[in-house]
Amino acid sequence: MDRISIKAARDAAAVGKHACIQGWVRTRRDSKAGFSFLEINDGSSLGNLQVIAPAELSNYESEVKRLGSGCSVTIEGELKESGGKGQATELLASAVQVHGWADAEEYPLQKKRHTFEKLREWAHLRPRTNTFGAVTRVRNCVTRSIHNFFQEEGFLNIHTPIITASDCEGAGQMFRVSTLDPQNLPKKDGHVDYALDFFGKPTYLTVSGQLEGEIFACAMGKIYTFGPTFRAENSNTSRHLAEFWMVEPEMAFYDLFDNMTLAERFLKRIFSDVMEDCLEDMQFFDEHIDSTTIATLSQIMASDFVRLPYTEAIEILESCGEKFEYPVKWGIDLQSEHERYLTEQKFKGPVILYDYPRAIKPFYMRVNDDGRTVRAMDVLVPKVGEIIGGSQREERLDVLTERMIEQHLNPADYWWYLELRKYGTVPHSGFGLGLERVVQFITGMANIRDVIPFPRTPGNAEF
Ligand code: ATP
Ligand code: MN
Asked: From atom 25 of ligand 1, which residue's Cα is the shortest distance away?
């Protein structure tokens, strides 16, 4: 007998099939007419499959009538057209096999509603809830869309290292990787002697694959990395994780505006793939989580992103009459309240801010002719704020070296990065997109901890 997913079984085209489905019981209801309704979910779709379990089943009294939320089953039967509303099909069971019971008194998800905070304590069970099932499918769709987009555009996927010795952006924000015994650290001249550590020098978990990505872009043309990144910043916000997934395309011969165009097309592609492939899940988010999410995505796909130089953004913020907690003046790093004003009040949609002050941006961003700004760009969206940060990279050896010194970095530590500028340098650009920030934006989930399977945040790494 054909084993099919519940998603396939719910399709009207499945009517008439004899099939076998496998999953977990969501509910059981006994009819007075002497049979039971079971709602089964297997993760393949938000909607459950309704199963009619007739009293003739050999284990009807002994097992079927004891089934409840959380029990696992294999059910064979025939798919019929359903008279019920909201479902095209139902399964008339000819055999029900129970794999595992779940004690109704103890099973935590027995009760219908739990807060997302509470569900975080049950990271092993929360994928069985409607919301996390939907998040999981959307996250998967975004991941597929990212690969499809870049592969179709001729980008090569590069696996950059997770353990790194360069700490360019991460000063003070990196997790150390070490095999030294913390109870018994080798010392030299009063300091820990990392020469005796595994790699013979201090090493860390990567905060970005960009610098290594540039190496490959400067040979292969267009590349992207997609991997986990780690930041030990102690920010307990709804938009920061200590471990998150980042997509970083890097393109030779792209200037900042090519970079913006790519970023915009890329985001629109993700949104349209999700609307197409996960419509049922999106309707769920729209109904239960954030009633603006579908309208927002549709509007964004149909309009152009605003492109706004930082200096003009500052002028807008200074003269808008809004009372901000952090005062605005040229040179500041924008706070989330400023970003939200621009995307939610002023432009009502995504804004690409660019040409930021050189003092607040990393050494590798290309210095503009004005000498005081760099070719940086951030893509800001309503509610979430920054989802993409990128730049045109500094391709001039002398300027790059000068910028390193200005930021108290030792050029000798980056000899390989500098050599990319010494041998056949090219203008090039790239950006980083935080996977969880996009999923958060798309679904409308308020907290980033609820869009990643196992969130790592300060004080939390239970699962
Ligand atoms: P923010 O200002 O929001 O802290 P950032 O400027 O430090 O972000 P970048 O270094 O530009 O971030 O990283 C590129 C992208 O990675 C960001 O645009 C964002 O989407 C994502 N990102 C950065 N830090 C985090 C984090 N701690 N948790 C989740 N996503 C993150
Ligand atoms: Mn950034």
From this structure: 240
